[in-house]
Amino acid sequence: MAEKSIKLTGGRGWGVTRECSGCGRPETDCRCPQAPAESLPAHKQLARLRLEKRRGKPVTVAAGLVMSEAQLKALLKELKARCGAGGTLKDGELEIQGDQRETLRALFEGKGFRVKGG
């Protein structure tokens, strides 16, 4: 069994270097853009609301939020529950079904965000 492991690792022993899934380099030499480690406080963020049409139906989009993906998912879950509508997270933007601009404006302002649009 030891001979097989030496052949697989190229004689480097048990140490295995991990490679980045994006660029294929070792993790220590990775040059991929990193996600922001921390989000900005709510009072320093500007939430931009806009209404779009998807297949003839209105969709409210909230963009411009600087948060981790986990924080965005938690916020999306809360917004969907408060609006009573479905929604999704696409490319860092929150999408809520229907014309929910006034509801989202009130919710964001209640959390301390600055809001533009809508």
TrEMBL record:
Species name: Desulfuromonas versatilis
Keyword Protein biosynthesis belongs to the record: yes
Protein name, per record: Translation initiation factor
InterPro entries, per database record: SUI1, SUI1_arc_bac, SUI1_dom_sf
Keyword Ion transport: no
GO terms assigned for molecular function: translation initiation factor activity
Gene3D superfamilies attached to this UniProt entry: SUI1-like domain
Entry superkingdom: Bacteria
Keyword annotations: Initiation factor, Protein biosynthesis, Translation regulation
Domain SUI1: 46-112
CDD domains referenced in this protein's UniProt entry, alphabetically: YciH_like
